[in-house]
Amino acid sequence: MSGWRDMVARRFLDRLGGEIGMATAVLAPVGVLAAIDQHAASVRDILAYGAPAAAAAILLAGYARGVLDEATKHGWTPPAVVEWSHADWTTLRLAAVCDLARRSDEPELALEA
Questions:
Q1: Rounded to the nearest 10 degrees, how much is the dihedral formed by the CA atoms of 54, 13, 36, 102?
Q2: How large is the greatest C-alpha to C-alpha distance in the chain, in angstroms?
Q3: What is residue 87's three-state secondary structure?
Q4: Which of 49, 59, 65, 69 lies closest to 104, judged by CA?
Q5: Percentage of the residues of the chain whose pLDDT score is greater than 90
Q6: Is 78 in contact with 91 (CB distance < 8 Å)?
Q7: How many angstroms separate the CA atoms of 20 and 34, rounded?
Q8: Which helix (H) or strand (E) holds 36?
Q9: Tell me: the pLDDT tens digits for 14-68?
């Protein structure tokens, strides 16, 4: 069952990455990439504290859905084209989650990062 959940979570994160323009993030200024790394570290800390034994993709997808739900309540929508040098907190946070999912080779979320 967790294999199915992992697949669904990864599909969601891949789709989210496409929606926020992760493919163009590599072209962002160094400062933006550093901000994404800082967000990634925060997300890792949050998830490691909450449930260290769960599969990374499932945790990341759940976290991303929570961020999306809260941002949507406040009127946020994914930008049509992300100007990374002017990206908002939500976009950077979601980019960090997608990047963590992409970099996650192990079945478990690495707690020591």
A1: 70
A2: 41
A3: coil
A4: 59
A5: 26
A6: yes
A7: 17
A8: helix 30-50
A9: 899 888 888 888 788 888 889 989 999 888 887 776 555 557 788 889 999 999 9
